[in-house]
Amino acid sequence: VETVQAEKNENKVLTIAHRGASGYAPENTMAAFEKSVDMKADLFEIDVQMSKDGEIVVIHDTTVDRTTNGSGKVKKLTLEELRSLDAGSWFREEFAGEKIPTLSEVLDKYRGKSGILIEIKSPSLYPGIEKKIAEELKEHNLHKPHNEKIIVQSFNHDSVQTFHSILPSVPVGVLIGYNEAGISSEEMNEFSSYAEYVNPSKKMVDEDLVDRIHDHDMEIHPWTVRDRKSADALLDAGVDGIITDYPDYIE
Ligand code: G3P
Ligand code: CA
Fold first, then answer.
1. pLDDT score for 251
2. Close Cβ partners of 101 (under 8 Å, ≥ 6 residues apart)
3. Could you give the 3-state DSSP secondary structure of residue 106?
4. Ordered structural domains, the chain, with CATH
5. How large is the ipTM?
6. Which atom of ligand 1 is nearest to the CA of 45?
7. Residue 10 confidence (pLDDT)
8. Which among 22, 26, 168, 246 could disulfide-bond with 91, CB atoms 3.0 to 4.6 Å apart, if both were Cys?
9. pLDDT number for residue 109
10. SS3 at position 131
11. Helix segments in the chain, DSSP class H
């Protein structure tokens, strides 16, 4: 069995744990990041937003309603209010007491231990968020080339370009939501003028798309894999990394 698994991922495709290993622990919590490292994922992905008092925090939705025992918008709550919430119980009682992490504590804890793919979520709600993220990376000395990859990505390509112009030493990726038209040549050329990664919905990926991205000297990390069959199809198409809730599915 081991030989077959090794052959499937012979090109060392990166395993990227989506919101941490979110199939096994509450998304975007230290428990999920710990699980990602335990499972030997190469990177974990996090979503970042900003508290009312300007701290970068790790949470997917623009409200705390779905993933904590609180309610309200992230941007209307102070760091202290956000930190008082339970971000684990909704997933399973054993995770009670998990907190919404700050970007700073994630960088402190995982610097040198795991790659981190940072998604800037809803940047239009948080003017200046790109500069703050850049400052945090510099404070943690993560703006220089590093063994463990640090990548910044967003669906908002203006935000990606803003971040890139502030801190060009940190590679950036463009996220692409599913669309039937695919990615035009014009878009591909534009992305390649600043981005190192094009990260589309897995539904858009075939060998042709992978080749076009490689021809533009970029790499591709599709999302979000939740079954072994799609993991295998992406490996066959030749992707460079796979963003998944289940790091053990990338074999
Ligand atoms: O990393 C890409 C993926 O996370 C994008 O979708 O909604 O899970 O942030 P979402
Ligand atoms: Ca995300």
1. 82
2. 28, 29, 30, 33, 46, 57, 58
3. helix
4. 2-62+102-249 (3.20.20.190)
5. 0.99
6. 1
7. 61
8. 26
9. 98
10. helix
11. 2-8, 30-38, 79-83, 103-110, 129-139, 157-166, 185-192, 207-215, 228-237
Which residue positions in the chain have pLDDT lower than 70? 1-11
- Residue bearing tokens 């003017």: 127
143 is catalytic: no
Set 18, 157, 164, 221: catalytic member? 18
Pairing outcome for strands 219-220 and 14-17: unpaired
User: How confident is the model over 105-119, as pLDDT tens digits?
Assistant: 999 999 999 999 999
Set 60, 157, 164, 221: catalytic member: 60
Q: Clarify whether 221 is annotated catalytic.
A: no
Choosing from 16, 42, 47 the residue with most ligand 1 atoms within 8 A of its CB, the one to mutate for a pocket test is 47
Scan for tokens 């499937």, then name that residue.
Answer: 8
Ligand 1 atom 3 nearest Cα: 223
189-246 pLDDT, tens digit each = 999 999 999 999 999 999 999 999 999 999 999 999 999 999 999 999 999 999 999 9
Task: Output the ligand 1 site: residues, CB below 6 A.
Answer: 18, 45, 47, 60, 119, 175, 223-224, 243
Q: What is the pLDDT of residue 25?
A: 98
Return the structure tokens found at 25. Answer: 């622990």
Phi, psi angle pair for 19, to nearest 5°: 55, 35
